[in-house]
Amino acid sequence: MDTLVKKFDEINLENRKLLIELIKKFSSSGGKELKEGNAVKPLHEIFFAGRAIIDDEKCIACGACAETCPTGALSIRDDENIRTISHTHQLCIACKRCETSCEDKAIKIEVELNLKDFIEGNLRKKKSAELKLCKECKKPVGPVASIARIAEKLKEEGIELSELDYCQKCRKWRTAYESVPKLSIYLQRSYPDGEK
Where is the 4Fe-4S ferredoxin-type domain (predicted)? Predict the structure, then answer.
């Protein structure tokens, strides 16, 4: 199962596409090859392009950065039991919304223009995190570190919640099954094999 977590509306980046074509023509006419690591850093803070740097120790892979990214430069993909956060330099406008949305201060945007990544539109993997799987159906619940953070916060409040071990669908079924005795009996009769 390969799931793109963040779905965003495609943004019209025609000016950016035009710039890419101009740079391609310019570099090909000059005979220069675009090489890895060649980046142009601005003299002043201009919000044009940026490179995401994620601190692996601080990041809990919650996805807040990708949720707030207006262009889809940051994306999250859940594949089996791994969450991957990636960055596309070509789409990044260095608005730094991802920085302000991250409570853990785990992401920084370095304002620079890497011509190779900008022109080629390379998707760079920035973070991989293990996903906690539902005890019932084995579908992803969320990143292990993120679930642990939630459990820790709840414990500080004196709340122990076993529901964090289940996905949203199984949680609903468990709640209905445990809290409504008549419904529980009906569900047992209607779905004797536990199918939902």
Answer: 50-79, 83-112
Cβ proximity of 35 and 113 under 8 Å? no
Question: CB–CB of 141/129 below 8 Å?
Answer: no
pLDDT tens, 132-178?
A: 999 999 999 899 999 999 999 888 888 877 788 888 888 888 777 67
For residues 142 and 131, the answer to whether their CB atoms sit within 8 Å is yes
- pTM, two decimal places: 0.68
First CA to last CA distance, the chain: 20
Q: What is the CATH number of the domain that holds 91?
A: 3.30.70
- Tracing tokens 């996805």 back to the chain, one arrives at 63
Provide the edge-to-edge strand list for the sheet that holds 82-88.
2-4, 74-79, 82-88, 123-133, 140-143
DSSP state of 44: S
The sign one gets for the Cα dihedral 54, 58, 61, 62 is negative
Q: Are 168 and 93 found together in one domain? A: no
Alpha-carbon distance of 136 to 180, in angstroms, equals 20
Residues 152 and 125: their CA atoms lie apart, in Å, by 28
Report the 3 state secondary structure along 112-126: CEEHHHHHHCCEEEE
Q: 108-133: per-residue pLDDT in tens?
A: 999 888 888 888 888 899 999 999 99
Domain ranges, residue 48: 2-131
